[in-house]
Amino acid sequence: MQITVERDVFRLAQVFTISRGSRTEAKVLTVRITDGDVTGWGECVPYARYDETLESVTAQIEGLSGALTRAALYDLLPAGAARNAVDCALWDLEAKRTGRRVWELAGLAKPGPEVTAYTLSLAEPAEMEAQAAKHAFRPLLKIKLGTPDDMPRLEAVRRGAPKSTIIVDANEGWSAAVYADLAPHLVRLGVALVEQPLPASEDEALIGMDRPVPVCADESCHDRASLPHLAGKYDVVNIKLDKTGGLTEALALRDAAVAQGFKVMVGCMVGSSLAMAPATLVAQGAMVTDLDGPLLLAEDRDTPLLFDEAGVHPPEPGLWG
Predict the structure, then answer these.
(1) Choosing a second label site near 245 at 20 to 30 A (CA), which of 84, 121, 180, 239?
(2) Predicted confidence (pLDDT) per residue in 195-208, tens digit
């Protein structure tokens, strides 16, 4: 097998801001694995929050050699972006070798479209209201919050999109006291879900707290090893392939989380349709699907995912799987 890693940059349609900072482009790594005359590919988005850089993840991938299997990857790479791209490339490679779709290889039912959230970037209330009004036709909006002045923003979004379901992502930006203060207002404004209100290192404070709105673990949940630490704190887990280390672990995490009583959200980093494609299989039947990365881009892969009123559709073979 031959493995290559390339850096690709996709311009964003507009500046994207969360509580940790802003960006104008998505920087991703594209991995190709060639075996004979067949090549599979996958994409990952290294994330600084998890001490990943383009350079460090590239080095992890380039350190691999020989014949690779998805099972062997668990011993070769930790959960994270590097293993994600390689795992997804191996799935794509097998699909192309066998002439079967990945969902068939994984023993899954044929996938269909899933309604996806559309993320509104963090901004001043007036700008967020304008963003919400522009996208008020979308059934599900996600708001990036996590600052000391979030209530005016939330109120503004609700004014702009009075009929949309709203979910909130605090990106670890609140304290326990702030969350407790905001919770009744989240209910009043019809918020359906709150992602990671507290820093992962401080989420013990959620034990015993009232959760009138379901609370979702994002930074606190990476793979199946995370689950024992989430009980009593969270109602939902956010599965992202760049955290789990690929589709293989994402499917296993989904099944384990559901068996332990958690609801499932399937999310993404800001990447291209290639990064979202495997996640559409995990998202089947999820409580929340948040695979809007391509909708935030000004440019995408040559064969992009289809987004329409039904949601995000599974990939065509020309893209992945």
Answers:
(1) 121
(2) 999 999 999 999 99
